[in-house]
């Protein structure tokens, strides 16, 4: 059972454009929703995270939008740069995190110069 | 400040053998969790340890086990290796009370032949 569904699988965006990646979850007990960025040969790195009591969180060029009623959240990358080319994973976890992170399948993002 | 260190980086084993992977968390981080990453299944939670105790385990067979030492270093063991165990094994650590903000290592690439 895939509890976090991520789309699209791959995405090509022109430099300077906005990259948008979407995720939907099923378990309403999820309490924490992070986004991770992974480059080839490296482990995932935490980009930005949100809790369900907030509808939006912005850090630099990265914004999470969260819709609790629709059980959806998305990552927006403004002014996308070639250095943003990577695989992005959304995830969710229960309060306390002892059950670990449940990840989406990932989005392979390519920013064309 | 050193990150999460995983050793070895690469490993080739034969079916039926067993393997032990090592993880040194960030200094002061007492929670350590393990994930398996494959192209087909993506990132899947294996288990988490805190203060030498396993807090939870993901949906993996008993061939997958782990432990944590008093210095928070952790090891995971896979016995009777199968071809399907070929994957990137990632370790992540976090501070207690830091919410769910995991820092991942670069992983151990295990190939079973």
Determine the N-to-C terminus distance of chain A: 38 Å
Helicity level of chain A? under 10%
Return Rg of chain B in Å. 13 Å
Task: Compute the separation of the termini of chain B in Å.
Answer: 37 Å
Largest beta-sheet characterization of chain A: 6 strands, mixed
DSSP summary: helix tally of chain A: 0
DSSP E strands of chain A, number: 11
Mean pLDDT of chain A: 94
Features:
heterodimer, A: 113 residues, mainly beta, globular, B: 113 residues, seven-stranded mixed beta sheet, four-stranded antiparallel beta sheet
Structure description:
The complex is a heterodimer of chains A (113) and B (113). Chain A is mostly beta strands and 113 residues long. Chain A contains no helices and eleven strands. In chain A, strands 2, 4, 5, 9, 10 and 11 form a six-stranded mixed β-sheet that branches. In chain A, strand 4 (30-38) and strand 5 (45-50) form a beta hairpin. Chain A is globular and about 40 Å long. The termini of chain A are far apart. Chain B has 113 residues and is mainly beta. Chain B has strands spanning 5-7, 10-13, 19-24, 31-38, 42-50, 53-57, 64-68, 74-78, 87-94, 103-104, 108-112. In chain B, strands 2, 4, 5, 6, 9, 10 and 11 form a seven-stranded mixed β-sheet that branches. In chain B, strands 1-3-8-7 form a four-stranded antiparallel β-sheet, with no helix packed on it.
């Amino acid at each position: 059972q895939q509890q976090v569904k991520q789309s699209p699988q791959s995405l090509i965006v022109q430099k300077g454009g906005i990259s948008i990646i979407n995720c939907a979850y099923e378990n309403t007990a999820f309490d924490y929703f992070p986004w991770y960025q992974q480059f080839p040969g490296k482990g995932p790195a935490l980009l930005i995270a949100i809790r369900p009591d907030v509808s939006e969180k912005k850090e630099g060029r990265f914004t999470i939008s969260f819709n609790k009623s629709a059980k959806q959240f998305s990552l927006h990358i403004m002014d996308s740069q070639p250095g943003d080319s990577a695989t992005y994973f959304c995830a969710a976890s229960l309060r306390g995190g002892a059950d670990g992170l449940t990840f989406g399948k990932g989005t392979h993002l390519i920013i064309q110069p | 400040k050193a990150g999460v260190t995983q050793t070895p980086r690469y490993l080739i084993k034969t079916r039926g053998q067993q393997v032990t992977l090592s993880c040194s968390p960030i200094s002061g981080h007492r929670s350590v969790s393990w994930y398996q990453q494959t192209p087909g299944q993506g990132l899947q939670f294996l288990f988490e340890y805190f203060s030498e105790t396993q807090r939870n385990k993901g949906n993996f067979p008993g061939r997958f086990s782990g432990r944590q030492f008093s210095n928070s270093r952790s090891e995971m063991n896979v016995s009777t290796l199968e071809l399907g165990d070929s994957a990137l094994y990632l370790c992540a650590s976090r501070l207690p009370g830091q919410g769910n903000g995991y820092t991942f290592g670069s992983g151990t690439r295990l190939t079973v032949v």
